[in-house]
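Case study 2.
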Amino acid sequence: MSDLKDYVDLRADEIKLRTTQGLSVAMGRLVAILLLVGLLVVVLCLLAVVLIQWIATWVDSMPIACSIVCGAFLLVLFVLFLLRKRLFRDTFVRLFIKIFYGNGQA
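Prediction:
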């Protein structure tokens, strides 16, 4: 009877450790993704400003340049919306399956 209790305790500890490992990996990746997204936002903002300035010198109108860049960003956003399942949902499902049910070497 003591062996059964020890076995159950060991299995419970193993589940706790796997859950903790999976959550720590997931949280680490989440923080890394958030940092990368923040950096990407800054880069895109600077790129937009440069692009607006360049187009404004080309068309001699700041409002038209802003509209062109805004249209380009809306087009990219529309394409990302159309590809959202393939790019984001399926990718994250595979990532979490690998983290929680993989070999633990994620």
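The chain has a mean pLDDT of 87.
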